[in-house]
UniProtKB/TrEMBL annotation:
CDD domains given in the database record: CMPK
Family: Belongs to the cytidylate kinase family. Type 1 subfamily.
Keywords recorded for this protein, A-Z: ATP-binding, Cytoplasm, Kinase, Nucleotide-binding, Transferase
A Pfam family matched in the record: Cytidylate_kin
Amino-acid positions noted as binding ATP in the UniProt annotation, renumbered to this chain: G12, P13, A14, G15, S16, G17, K18, S19, T20
GO CC field: cytosol
Annotated gene: cmk
Residues spanning the membrane: none
Keyword Cell inner membrane: no
NCBIfam families: cmk
Name of the protein in question: Cytidylate kinase
Reaction equation(s) it catalyzes: CMP + ATP = CDP + ADP; dCMP + ATP = dCDP + ADP
A biological process term (GO) from this entry: pyrimidine nucleotide metabolic process
Amino acid sequence: MPHTNLKIAIDGPAGSGKSTTAKLVAKALGLLPIDTGAMYRAVALKVLREKIDPHDEEKVVEIAGKVNIEQKLENGEIHTYLDGEDVSTAIRTPEVNNTVSIISAYPGVRKKMVELQRKLAKAGGVVLEGRDIGTVVLPDADLKVYMIASLEERVRRRLKELKEKGMDVSLEDVKQEILMRDEMDSKREYSPLKIPEDAFILDTTNLTVEEQVEKILKEVERRFGLKRR
């Protein structure tokens, strides 16, 4: 199988290390990384900007059906565009975090995003990361990776990420945010977060990003005989 057609799904809870790892795995294999969580965040940002109540499911679903969301790889980084505007930084605020936890549970929103994600992945040669890629978006993915990590480590990573972006948040705030997201992700009726039956499970608690990437690349080589570029 040529590496250009490979479809890799990477799932896991918040703070498990999906985004950075997916991007580096894609780079090593010459694939396109797609951050599906950023797509939901873009919808959440639009909801906030339009001053729509995130609990108004009908209006939120309507917004999700109208927005134009694109992703481009620029200087090795995934940039998310909302109606032509680069919102890569704007979608990483606490306000968006709180809103996306609500709107991402709506079946209508998830249906719209899944359609977009499948369209992007149709030709292959992609690494999609999110929370329902291996179970819903790409159940036929060539490799399904499910990343886990301890709560303490996930909180530490998320706090570090937010601090580096200049956001004034406390450890307890981040912990509560992750616990809330975990509960909503696992209990939502439509496409809940769960481990795909045939997933390669990777515990990243005590691994560096480089070690996480290396383990996935070794699994790709073991299964498909493919080596990094």
